[in-house]
Amino acid sequence: MDKYSELIESIDNYIYKNFTAVDEYQKKVYESMTYSLFSGGKRVRPILGILTYKALSGSDDYEEILPFAVAVELIHTYSLIHDDLPAMDDDDIRRGKPTNHRVYSEAIAILAGDGLLNMSAEVLSKEIETYDDLAKVKKAIKAMKYIFTASGVHDLIGGQVIDIEYNDDMNYDICEIMYKLKTAALIRASVVSAGIIAGASEEEIASLEEFANCVGIAYQIEDDILDEELDQKKEKNTMLKFKTKEELLSRIEDLTIRANNELDSLEYDTTELKEFAELLMNRGK
Amino acid sequence: MDKYSELIESIDNYIYKNFTAVDEYQKKVYESMTYSLFSGGKRVRPILGILTYKALSGSDDYEEILPFAVAVELIHTYSLIHDDLPAMDDDDIRRGKPTNHRVYSEAIAILAGDGLLNMSAEVLSKEIETYDDLAKVKKAIKAMKYIFTASGVHDLIGGQVIDIEYNDDMNYDICEIMYKLKTAALIRASVVSAGIIAGASEEEIASLEEFANCVGIAYQIEDDILDEELDQKKEKNTMLKFKTKEELLSRIEDLTIRANNELDSLEYDTTELKEFAELLMNRGK
């Protein structure tokens, strides 16, 4: 991922900007929020947002998309902290480190998650407040609405509800819906919000949505396969319960083709975006 | 509170509008969200927002402020659900009913809280997306930023952090800071966002902030005194640990005078707002 180190640095710097001037009372919760924000996340979602923006705007200056890309990363991080809690997946380790609540207590982990979700709305409203052009403001509000719909009960949170509620009655189709909500939703939020800010048409947005859904589902299947190989997976709801590894690898291949087709349908140079998406969908290779 | 039943009906109807078209997977979390939204909350924050808006705009039509008033109520409700969790205050009863996690499980209660906070951002971005006038959009974004700053780590969430972190080392001054963050922050969010939407000047906003802080702190002290009398209070961080009831009643009197003075400094008819605020600050009488 060395190729993306400049992007990652910009993303990290933008995140850091929001953690200044903290007083005594908030130190611990800020520490807990930054612990999870800077513990090995690959910044997949913000990088996808930036590369989508660069492709569609034709510009190398991606400053405009950073607040949106970072907002999605804040939401992603909060969802991981809450998903790991004892009442949810009860995970002790994430990315090779103790989970947030193991380090900071359950109470602080819940509040740190709340703080990150809240901060995503703060970051976006602070940014949009500085705009003075109605067309620009309207695109930004539309992108913000898209992001918070994707992170809401019908998408991201709904996916976690399925994960909690379905056990013995889980099947392949519900599992696919779960992947679409739990994993693809925020990938879609990154990609589509970037498309909106870059001025994409409704038709182009539909292609970006389909592209992002394919990437998101393939990325999650790939994750499951890698976890299984590392033998780190506890008894969890994954497609490996219903299909063989070979069947799933062929599903990833289909999704990769569909994702590429959607990008090819766009009249932009999507080389960089395609390359990064393929990397995500085929990490095991 | 019969006098406010029309306002409460408008608020409740606006809340309901956001809970339609739910599919199978989300039913339980929607049920959990609406359980806490409709279990005896007095709609104090949205009513304060509406009355502030009516006073400053001079209009009886308060439709414009409803999304902001409701956003604050959604945030307030999520914070109660999360505060009641076993890892936090571990409360079994709220407003005479079982707390959310006692009815729906801890996992669903965490997700319902997340869903409500997320929904507040959805409600606001959906509303603002419909605006076509730059000045109106800019006021709305400013109000939104104010709300999410008040609900963030420096205010609302910070107040809960103090409640969790301070026990034997709690004192009167830190307790007052906690009340300002935990209780006054969202009252300030309601009142000030309404002022911003009604077009208040910076000076007027400063008066509204001071008014709301006084109301918020007095309201919390009143709450502690009433809880103590009902003998329902577990060992919690309240000012009654450090002052007598008489001292606190006299503090409420001071805060009431200061709140009224702030309203009197405004060149608007604030009779209705003052009457409601006095009701909140002196519920025991």
UniProtKB/TrEMBL annotation, chains A, B:
EC number: 2.5.1.10
GO MF annotation terms: (2E,6E)-farnesyl diphosphate synthase activity; metal ion binding
Keywords carried by this UniProt record: Isoprene biosynthesis, Magnesium, Metal-binding, Transferase
GO biological process: terpenoid biosynthetic process
Name of the top EC class for this enzyme: transferase
InterPro entries documented for this protein: Isoprenoid_synthase_dom_sf, Polyprenyl_synt, Polyprenyl_synt_CS
Catalysed reactions, as listed in the record: isopentenyl diphosphate + (2E)-geranyl diphosphate = (2E,6E)-farnesyl diphosphate + diphosphate
Family listed: Belongs to the FPP/GGPP synthase family.
Name listed for the protein in its UniProt record: Farnesyl diphosphate synthase
